[in-house]
Fold this sequence. Notes:
By secondary structure, the protein is an all-alpha fold. It has helices at 4-23, 39-63. It has one domain (4-63). Helices cover 62% and strands 0% of the residues.
Amino acid sequence: MATxxxxxxxxxTATDSAWDAIRYxxxxxxxxxxxxxxxxxxxxxxxxxxxNIEIAIAAIDAAGDVGWTKxxx
Length: 73
């Protein structure tokens, strides 16, 4: 059974990967006509972000109550 630390590692890794995919949209995506310069690649980046977000959510769901440290611990 995975520990809270192991679930956290999975969640953070997947979230970082999703964030990297979304960063593609930070100003580099438009051509001179104000349109996506590469819609196929943009779609690929969005799918990658979605896949990684789903991994993070699944890890949170799988963790359930694995003994997360509480703020008062």
